[in-house]
């Protein structure tokens, strides 16, 4: 899921002040931002109180089922058309993808209410960890299902670095060095150590990413 954190309130206030927005519509997200406790109903209501404390009017709000889904967000925008029409700006409590979807769905100025920080694993309720940066050329087959690119603080594909001591990471000292962990798991599973992995081909990580499943099924593709 996409992990988000609240954006600095001063920055949101400055954005709204810049266009003289006194009336605001708030859009949350029922998926990742709800699980991360940054953009669900509770946070939307808290943001409503903050805006009202600033002397602004909240014309309405919604929590989209999946705010990065253009069709669903357009539908929500239609359902709340009057409240959106009465607003000067839309504040979106969702990841950057959700903010852009909302900006495509309405004609009003749209502002992010959150910062998008990483693609996260839910380790347990309320605890998220980054395990994948979506590099487009996965090495997990060679590294026992542990991503060195993401989970080594230096992003080293091959390691350990010279700072590893007694199996521990020199940066995150309470953690086992990722490369030690990879070797340990490979040994436990009776698998060979892969040797030096070749440099990653970052051309595989083309931006902006785009996949068209419909075309792929019809024999086309995506990247
Ligand atoms: S190598 Fe790491 S960053 Fe790349 S796709 Fe695999 S898990 Fe994700
Ligand atoms: S000790 Fe290991 S995990 Fe920590 S920075 Fe060095 S190589 Fe990466």
Structure characterization notes:
The protein has nine helices and seven strands; from the N terminus they run E-H-E-H-H-E-H-H-E-H-E-E-E-H-H-H. With 223 residues, the chain is an alpha/beta fold. Strand 6 and strand 7 (127-130) form a beta hairpin. Residues 152-154, 156, 159-161, 163-164, 169-171, 177-179 line the site of one iron/sulfur cluster (SF4). The site of one iron/sulfur cluster (SF4) has 15 residues, from helix 8.
Strand order of the largest sheet: 3-2-4-5
Q: What name goes with the CATH superfamily of the largest domain?
A: Response regulator
C-alpha-based Rg, rounded = 22 Å
Query: CATH top level of the largest domain?
Result: Alpha Beta
The number of helices is: 9
Number of DSSP-assigned strands: 7
Number of individual domains? 2
CATH architecture descriptor text of the largest domain: 3-Layer(aba) Sandwich
Going by helix content, strand content and strand pairing, the class is alpha/beta
Strand content: 15-25%
Global shape: elongated
Averaged pLDDT: 95
């Amino acid at each position: 899921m996409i992990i988000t954190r609240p954006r600095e309130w001063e920055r949101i206030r400055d954005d709204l002040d810049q266009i003289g927005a006194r009336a605001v519509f708030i859009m949350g997200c029922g998926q990742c931002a709800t699980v991360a406790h940054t953009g669900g109903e509770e946070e939307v209501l808290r943001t409503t109180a903050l805006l009202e404390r600033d002397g602004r009017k909240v014309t309405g709000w919604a929590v989209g089922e999946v705010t990065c889904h253009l069709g669903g967000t357009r539908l929500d925008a239609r359902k709340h058309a009057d409240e959106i029409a009465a607003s000067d700006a839309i504040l979106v409590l969702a990841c950057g993808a959700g903010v852009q979807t909302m900006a495509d769905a309405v004609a009003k100025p749209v502002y992010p209410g959150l910062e998008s920080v990483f693609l996260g694993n839910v380790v347990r309720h309320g605890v998220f960890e980054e395990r994948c940066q979506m590099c487009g050329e996965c090495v997990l087959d060679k590294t026992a299902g542990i991503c060195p690119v993401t989970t080594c603080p230096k992003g080293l594909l091959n390691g350990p670095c010279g700072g590893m001591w007694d199996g521990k990471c020199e940066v995150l000292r309470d953690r086992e060095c990722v490369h030690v962990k990879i070797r340990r798991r490979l040994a436990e599973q009776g698998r060979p150590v892969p040797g030096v992995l070749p440099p990653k081909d970052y051309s595989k990580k083309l931006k902006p990413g785009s996949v068209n499943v419909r075309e792929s099924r019809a024999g086309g593709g995506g990247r």
